[in-house]
Amino acid sequence: MTRLRLACVALVLLATGAAAADLIRIPFQSTTLPNGLTLVLAPDHTTPTVAVDIWYHVGSKNEVRGRTGFAHLFEHMMFTGSGHVPYGLQDKLTEGVGGGNNATTSNDRTNYFDTVPANYLESALWIEADRMGFLLDAFDHAKLDAQRDVVINERRLRQDNAPYGAVYEILNRTTYPPSNPYSWDVIGSVADLRAASDEDVKNFFRQYYAPNNAVLAIAGDFDPAQAKAWVVKYFGGIPRVGSIARPPVPPVTLSSAQRLVYEDRVQVPRLYVQWPTVGEKSDDRFALDVLGSILAGRRTARLTKALVYDQQSAANVGARQDSNEDVGQFIVSITPRPGHSLTDLEADADAIIARLKSEGPTGDEVRRATAGTELEFLRGLESNLGKAEQLADGVGFHGDAGYFRTEYEKSRSVTAADVKRVANQYLAAGRVILSVVPAGHADQAASPSDSRNVTAEQHAVAGQP
Amino acid sequence: MRARWLSALAVALAVALAAGFSRAPIVSAQQQLDRTKIPAPGKTPVLHVPAWTKSTLADGADFIVSEKHDLPLVSFSITFLGGANQVEPAGLRGIGPLTASMLSEGTRARDGEALSNALQLLGTTVNVAVGAESGSMGFVSTTANFPAALDILDDMLVNSTFPAQALERLRAQRLVALNQAKAQPAAIAGRVFPRVLYGPSHPLGQSPTEASISAITRDQVVAFYRSYFRPARALVTVVGDVNGSSAKAMVERALSSWQAGGDKPAFAYPPLPAPRPTTIFLVDKPAAPQSTFAIGLPGPPRDTPDYFAIQVMNTILGGQFQSRLNANIREDKGYSYGVASSFGFGKGPNPFRGGGDMTAGKTDLALVEFMKELRGITGARPITDEELTTAKDALVQRLPATFASVGGINAAITNIWTQSLPDDYYQQYAKAIAAVTKNDVLRVARTYIDVDHLAIVIVGDRASIEAPLKATAIAPIAVLDIEGAPAGQ
Q: Hey, is the C-beta of A48 within 8 angstroms of any chain B C-beta?
């Protein structure tokens, strides 16, 4: 009897697994042009739109000290027109026909995307090829100055004039040694942005904006043969460059706790704790993602339940793993309710984390944390751009456009033992503890007498041009 | 060369493709390629508006179902007509969202933790919201989890217990959020701008305050719930991988204990305050490196016959990246990361509002340019044929993308219902936009962007920006505190 029942259970599980796995698919074709450009095509005729995503393997980690923020400033330069495409035409042929265009820069990559009605795919490819091949033909110094001002305004908006806006800059420059390219922020310092020169633009373009440093992913309503022909036509003649240097990034550990206090223009203090962990290339990140969900977010997550609901000492808490290509960090943040000190909240959070490290999570906690993965993936399939980005990330970071499936399976197969192990391995004594407090109230920091006062780097202030 | 393909079938194609690349002699192809030639667009895709079926549930709620089967997803929602502006008393602003949050705090069968755990295992969340003119309760789930998620939503809708201690926790969290917002320039502008436009006694001029949040009692929350979350004001929508004919029976079964009745809200807004000559309302944010602009005035309701002309006009002025405001102030001058404008469009006189965050040291110059663009669209700089065509194309050809997801289709259908639009609204949209002329654009700009009666709210470093602003002579300056009341010296 027992044997038979077990066999039935196994059969049911297998059937469920197979059905679920079949949903996790993005039909695609992938190939590489002779000049090194990787092309991924994912036709899907559900909606008459197409997303073009071109992904360059260059980000802020390719910068050098003295030129921080340059990769992102350069991203802006890519929208100023190229040899055969005058400034503004890209907008006219994307947002002007009901689509859109934009780009994002991270530590590791810069991706440019156009979303267009299905009948505007060819012009989108023509534009992207022209700026890959001929950006400098249309470059001039005035364009650099204009975009420099825009980017400095972007920094002011996101960081200098935003409460808590400087925290990631402070956390990362403390977690990583100055020689590590993850020690500076993607947005960069104002002084470095001001120092960027015409020569910097030209050198950066020649070094990194080449077909053999790019992935082109196209998703949506198109004919694959026609799309391939257009890609060959417009990108095929752009020459490859020699081997591209990647900065070495040694693993990072902190030998002891670094306690900082930052006086910000905020009304309410907040505690941030950051541990160096692992990046995109390590499978431990999947268990760290689950650890984040088990600690904070939904009501029964451990820190949320204890601090926000049971003790009611916090207004909100957060916990998450951030994965970059070579490194990652695990961040906990806690906003106190009035009358509760950061010192006490830190101690309470530490006790909760210590207990999780010694007992490990329950199977139920892990199931709840991973149950949403399927819905999240399926909803991602509703967006052509979402699909193109997944495919491009897979090629760029893992050499495999089909990596989304591996990622899905690894996310779903995290066990309680995995979570316990990574919690013990990474949430160790070496960490950064940053108290953000209202100006003049350094005494509100966690353990104020042990904390070093820090300021935001290159803080842009009123009155400067 | 790498060639990776997902299916075995594709291996043959891979070989063919590889051959194709090497067969095309790159160099000669490039010699013939004229890169100055803009590729012509193909044939414009035919707009496919999803079909839906409308009926009434046994409890009196309207019911719409729309099938979409390419992915195993379902979007379910209940939309409630009327929102904070209709149902929140002036002294209790914030009771709607607070009541909405209380629906996740426990039912007769499940406490708050049990509700949360059950939804986590289904991989989803039931979102409950009460907005300015409507409210909603809904989720997106996989097809397989739809019945179970619907049962939980029903439990929250009809069996919630409103625990007193949960209300106190939610209240305390909101008070912290209100306190944090006092340091956020965008939040300050968002509170002060409607206050100066509509005044404190108009619903559009009010927002939750520490006093109103502190005043709300559990009895008031329960009373709000009993009158608001009712079928007579509700639309139930199911969009996605369901069978249209069986979905209705399933929803009726799940919502069988939802009590019929309730009131349809009236959307009668009180009269607006008398127009006031253009004024700069300056809110001090010491040492702020940027000045946050919110510039505008009360606007027309959504049912204005000028709706389509206004959409075209605003697309040219501030609805897109290459619109006049952003092209000038960001791209040409570099004073900002982004400048935009929009019309609020609701049942009442929701505002026209433009703005952005400007370099503190360029506050005066940015305002000069901003005003120049408003004067331009109202006649000083007539729109070109190209601007008109591009704005129309952008608006019309954007439609198919709004139907890409189950949530997008649900929102499009709900929009028709909440705004009382005709059922063939999306089919007729292109025709309505096409009919807009240059004269229409000029006329609506002059009618709805009255440059002599604007509120110009600027949140920034008073010490460095007040004198330059005064020197522009654009308008007199009134200094306000972060709540929008006159500031003491």
A: yes
Q: Which helix (H) or strand (E) holds A437?
A: strand A432-438
Q: Does B213 contact chain A (CB < 8 Å)? A: no
Which whole-number Å values give the CA distances from A365 to A13, A351, A361, in the listed order? 20, 18, 6
Q: Which two tokens stand for residue B329?
A: 């102030």
Q: Concatenate the DSSP letters of all residues of B322-337 into one string.
A: TSHHHIIIIIIT--EE
**pLDDT surpassing 60 at residue B295:** yes
Give strand ranges (E) for B234-348. 234-240, 279-284, 290-298, 336-343
**What strands lie across the sheet with A452-454, from one edge to the other?**
A314-323, A328-336, A270-276, A432-438, A258-264, A452-454
Give the dihedral of Cα atoms B210, B211, B214, B216; nearest 10 deg.
-120
C-alpha pair distances (Å), A50 with each of A110, A269, A435, B198, B249: 20, 45, 45, 43, 38
Calculate helix-pair angle for A373-380, A384-398, nearest 10 degrees: 110
Q: Is residue A374 within 8 angstroms of chain B, CB to CB?
A: yes
- Of A40, A153, A313, which to mutate for an interface test with B (greatest number of B Cβ within 10 Å)? A153
- Most B CBs within 10 A among A24, A25, A29, hence the mutation to make, goes to A29
pLDDT (tens digit per residue) in B296-330: 999 999 999 999 999 999 999 999 999 999 999 99
Q: Does residue B16 surpass a pLDDT of 60?
A: no
* A238 vs B29: CA distance, rounded Å: 12
- The pLDDT value recorded for residue B4 is 24
Q: Are A456 and A166 in contact (CB under 8 A)?
A: yes
What radius of gyration do chain B's Cα atoms show? 26
Core vs surface per residue A159-188: b (16+ CB within 10 A) or e? bbbbbbbbbbbbbbbbbbeeebbbbbbbbb
Of the candidates B5, B259, B287, B80, the residue with the CA atom closest to the CA atom of residue A40: B5
Judged by CB atoms closer than 8 Å, whether chains meet at B42 and A374 is answered as: no
Q: Does B321 reach chain A within 8 Å, measured CB to CB?
A: yes
Q: Name the pTM for this structure.
A: 0.93
What residues does A336 pair with on adjacent strands?
A314
Q: Touching check for A79 and chain B: CB below 8 Å?
A: no
Whether pLDDT at B378 is above 60: yes
Contacts of residue A234, defined as CB under 8 A and 6 or more positions apart, other chains included, come to A125, A126, A128, A129, A130, B33, B35
Looking at residue B59, its pLDDT comes to: 94
Summarised one tens digit per residue, pLDDT across range A131-152 is 999 999 999 999 999 999 999 9
- C-alpha distance from B16 to closest chain A C-alpha (Å): 11
Residues 272-291 of A with CB under 8 A from B: none
Which of the four pLDDT bands, split at 50, 70 and 90, describes residue B3?
A: very low
B238 touches chain A (CB under 8 A): no
Sheet holding B234-240, edge to edge: B53-56, B62-67, B234-240, B73-81, B134-142, B127-130
Q: Which amino acid is at A367?
A: R
Pairwise CB contact (< 8 Å): B38 & A335: no
Closest residue in chain B to residue A39, using alpha carbons only: B3
Instruction: Say whether residue A337 is in contact with chain B using an 8 A CB cutoff.
Output: yes
pLDDT bin (cut points 50, 70, 90) of residue A21 is low
Distance (Å, whole) CA B349 – CA B355: 19
DSSP string computed for B181-216: HTT-HHHHHHHHHHHHHH-TTSGGG----HHHHHH-
Smallest CA–CA distance, residue A464 to chain B, in Å, is 6
Q: Which residue in B6, B213, B396 has the most chain A C-beta atoms within 10 A of its own C-beta, making it the best mutation to test that interface? A: B6
Contact list in B for residue A115 (CB cut-off 8 A) is: 401
pLDDT band with cut points at 50, 70 and 90 for residue A123:
very high
